[in-house]
Amino acid sequence: MSDYSERRLVIACGGTGGHLFPGIAVAESWTKGGGEVVLLISEKQIDALAAEGYGHLRFEKMASVAMPKPVSPRMIPFLAKFAGSWISCRKLLKSFRADAVLGMGGFTSAAPLLAGKWKGLPTFIHESNAIPGRANKLNAKFARTVLVGFEGCAKHFETSRPVEVVGTPVRPSVANRPSREDAAAFFGISPEKKTIMVMGGSQGARRLNELVAAGLSAFEEAGMQVLHISGPADYETVRPAYEKHPGAGVVRDFCSEIQYAYAAADLAICRSGASTLTELAFYGLPSVLVPYPFAADDHQTLNAEIFSVPAAAELWKQEELNEGNFSRKIVALLSDDERIASMRAAMEELAIPDASAQVCEVIAKQIREDA
User: Fold this and answer.
1) pTM score, two decimals?
2) Which pLDDT score, from 0 to 100, does residue 283 have?
C-alpha cells in the first residue's frame, strides 16, 4: 500500500452509481494509504442511497445541473448555478487544503475541476466508458491528465494532455467476496438453484424489469430462481409478479451490498454501464447485456461490445426482445453449462482488480512532482 499521508484529495463523483461507486473505491484506497478525501455528490436521492454504509468517508452535496444546448433559454440559469458551484468549490478546496482534484464524470465534476485548475492544483478526470460523454469532453479541458477504463477510449481525447489506461475502480466492499452460501442466505434464496441476477444499474431499467417479471413462470418451471434488483422507481410495479410466483425468486428495490448479489448469481442480466461491467468482470460473472438504447452516443452498446466480442457476455438489443422470446433465450443460455463456463473464463480475463491503486498512484505521482 502506498503512503498518501497528509495528502488531500477531492473527488467529484455524483449523479449516478457509475460515477459514485468508482469514486468511493478511489477514496477507500486513498484513505487506506493515510490520505484524506472529500467526495462531492449531487443532491439526487440515488446518491444518498449509494453513500449509505460509508460513514467513515466525508461526503459533501453540491448543486449541479446538466448543461443545456448552447442556444437555449436554460443556459442563463445553468450558468448562474454553475458559477455558484464554482465559488463553493473554490472555498472548499481552500478550507480543505486540497492537493488534487479528481472528477469521475458528469457535469457534477466540471465546477470542482475548474476550481482546481484555477488554483493550480493537479486535476484529473476518469472516463470509464468506451467513449466519453459530452460532460467529460468538457471536463477534459480542465484536467491535466485523463484516466480511462478502456484502452480504446484514449483516442477520443486530445493528444495535448497525458491519457493513461487504469481500468475502472471496484469498491472494496464489492471486492470482498462472500461465499455463495452466505450470499444466498443474505437474500433468503436457495444456493442450489441456478440463479439469474437482474440489475438495471443504480437507477433501474424499466423494460428489463418488465421482461423479467413476465418471464417468472418460465424461469420457475425451468428450476431457476431470479434475484431481481429493480431500482426504486419500478419496485411497486414489479413486486406483484413475485407475489404471484413466490417460488421464482426475490425482488429488492435497491441493494447497497451488491457483492452478495454477484456472489449468488450464475448469470447476470443488466445494462452495460462501465462500472457495472467492471464489477461483473471482477466476479467473472457471465452476462446478458441489454444496452440502454437512448444512452448518449450509444456508449452502452460500445461498452457491451468490449465484452461480447471476446464472448464474455451476450449483447442483446432491447428492441429485439419481447415477452415471448426473452425468457426462452435466458433459459436456453443458462441451461448450456459449457457455454456458461466459457463465458466465465472470458469475463475473468477482462478484470483489472487493481484499478483503484493505479488511479491513486497516478495522482500521487503528480502531487509529488508539483511539490
Assistant:
1) 0.85
2) 97
